[in-house]
Amino acid sequence: MMDKKKTTIVLFSGDYDKVMAAYIIANGAAAYDHEVTIFHTFWGLNALRKDESIQVKKSFMEKMFGKMMPRGPEKMGLSKMNMAGMGPKMIKDIMKKHNTMPVKDLIEMAKEQDIKLVACQMTVDLLGFKPDEIIDGVEYAGVAAYLADAEDGNVNLFI
Description:
By secondary structure, the chain is α/β, with parallel strands linked by helices. It is 40% helix and 16% strand.
């Protein structure tokens, strides 16, 4: 019997287009029967944030980080041609015309395909995110857990 292929992705970027690429690759790998892990760290954690404001107790700096960063994937900017926020609106309009799934739907598809969504515990602590602010179905782990998944990975990507 052949071992199941594994794909791991470190999602460091908080850019809409890069998050979209990561989730398209992840969902494609899962469709090809790969065991897939996406390890969200630093700005990539914003993809896992709930889009509504959640009332949680935070320090001043944690509140500032929370206000400065996009709440959820649909509020992320583009890596190029962001144009003061007009770029994401234009690209989403084009995506709709071409029946391309928005990132929030790609994330739901990932959950349905049992893709392991991991939030880097160290970054969660550093940026002051609270579990109530993160979407359901996310695991919290550190670098050691990611490395354990990546060690047997057939495809390991950093986005």
